């Protein structure tokens, strides 16, 4: 049987034990349905080989060789990751567009006795839903932007809000990046994968209630925000956390402990600021890195790099700002309580 995905709500409602992506590893790496597992029936080299035979020899020869390869790889999956699946296991299988790869694998699984289904239209049906939601349909959510200068604990406060009944979308979490030159957290998802995560995150929310997002530029690391989301963020009212620079510097040392522990990486990031600051200023900051003066470095970067840029950006904005002022950033639970109260009143 074929499962028809007409909306992202249909994706959220899928009730299968496993969702299996049988496309080649490179296809999987670029993007896949969130939560799916990768069990390719043709690897990248095999897929290219079958495609070449299809074009240069004949479709019949390609199908024959492709079937043999699918059977070989299916056997490896059955003897490997699927070996312990019970008789009542219910998988959902998809390939690029719901054709031969998913159909062949599903046929083998069904012959064993498993209740397997395939996605009509395959991965392309999923991708179409994501594009429609983020690029074609009107933006349905009323946003509130959580603002504040660098080091004001915005991300941590944002992630405390759901426990207080406030809807949020953690853009930095979805992009696996903390949103600044110093924000790398490892490999980021591809643009398509980021969009898929974002589309599902938005689909889970109630459009009648406000949604809080953190203030970001139009890109979070290398992941671009869809234009409709970005325009909604620019026009949204803002709740701004106001904390003294010394408190923010102290918080940054805790939040970026991984970067402080890697002096070589920190020095390289500071050195990259030479495009925005004088040689003398960057040399001063790098000397602080070498001397382990990380608190002074954090305050200096905020005073001369981050805070002025935030100020110029806000000066161009004509949206309501509500300030939530704190003397320190130790009681983030209390701060989240205050932010949630403001959001509920909007």
Report on this model:
The protein is of the alpha/beta class and 346 residues long. 51% of the residues lie in helices and 12% in strands. The protein contains 16 helices and twelve strands. It has helices at residues 8-12, 25-30, 44-56, 59-79, 100-112, 122-136, 154-158, 171-175, 191-203, 227-235, 245-255, 257-260, 263-271, 279-291, 294-315, 332-344, and strands spanning 2-3, 18-21, 37-38, 91-94, 117-119, 143-148, 167-169, 211-214, 219-220, 223-224, 238-242, 321-325. The strands form three sheets. It has a five-stranded parallel beta sheet with strand order 1-5-4-2-3. Helix 5 links the parallel strand 4 (91-94) and strand 5. Helix 11 packs across helix 15 (294-315). The radius of gyration is 25 Å and the shape is elongated. The protein starts with a strand and ends with a helix. The mean pLDDT is 94.
Number of helices: 16
Task: Provide mean pLDDT, rounded.
Answer: 94
Q: Termini separation (Å)? A: 47 Å
Strand fraction equals: 5-15%
> Which parts are unreliable, with pLDDT below 50 for 5 consecutive residues or more?
none
Task: List SSEs in N-to-C order.
Answer: EHEHEHHEHEHEHEHHEEEHEHHHHHEH
Structural class: alpha/beta
Query: What general outline do the C-alpha atoms trace?
Result: elongated
Helical amount: 40-55%
Strand order of the largest sheet: 1-5-4-2-3
The Cα radius of gyration reads: 25 Å
Can you summarize the main beta sheet?
A: 5 strands, parallel
Number of DSSP strand runs:
12
């Amino acid at each position: 049987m074929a499962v028809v995905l007409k909306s992202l709500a249909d994706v959220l409602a899928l009730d299968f034990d496993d969702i299996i992506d049988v496309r080649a590893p490179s296809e999987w790496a670029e993007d896949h349905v969130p939560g799916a597992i990768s069990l390719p029936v043709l690897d990248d080299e095999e897929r290219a080989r079958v495609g070449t035979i299809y074009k240069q020899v004949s479709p019949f020869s390609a199908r024959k060789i492709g079937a043999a390869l699918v059977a070989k790889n299916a056997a490896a999956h059955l003897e490997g990751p699927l070996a312990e699946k019970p008789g009542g296991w219910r998988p959902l299988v998809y390939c690029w567009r719901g054709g031969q790869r998913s159909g062949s694998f599903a046929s083998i699984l069904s012959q064993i006795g498993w209740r397997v289904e395939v996605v009509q239209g395959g991965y392309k049906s999923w991708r179409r839903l994501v594009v429609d939601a983020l690029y074609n349909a009107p933006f349905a959510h009323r946003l509130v932007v959580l603002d504040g200068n660098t080091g004001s604990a915005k991300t941590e406060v944002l992630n405390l809000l759901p426990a207080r009944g406030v809807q949020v979308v953690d853009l930095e979490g979805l992009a696996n990046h903390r949103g600044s030159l110093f924000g790398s957290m490892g490999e980021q998802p591809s643009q398509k994968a980021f969009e898929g995560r974002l589309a599902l995150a938005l689909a889970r929310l109630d459009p009648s209630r406000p949604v809080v997002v953190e203030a970001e530029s139009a890109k979070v690391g290398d992941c671009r925000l869809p234009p409709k989301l970005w325009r909604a963020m620019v026009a949204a009212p803002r709740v701004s956390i106001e904390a003294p620079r010394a408190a923010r510097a102290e918080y940054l040392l805790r939040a970026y402990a991984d970067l402080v522990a890697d002096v070589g990486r920190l020095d390289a990031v500071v050195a990259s600021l030479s495009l925005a600051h004088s040689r003398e200023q960057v040399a001063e900051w790098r000397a602080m890195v070498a001397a382990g003066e990380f608190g002074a470095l954090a305050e200096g970067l905020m005073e001369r790099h981050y805070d002025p840029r935030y100020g110029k950006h806000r000066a161009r904005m004509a949206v309501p700002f509500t300030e939530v002022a704190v003397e320190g950033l130790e009681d983030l639970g209390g701060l989240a309580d205050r932010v949630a109260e403001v959001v509920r009143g909007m």
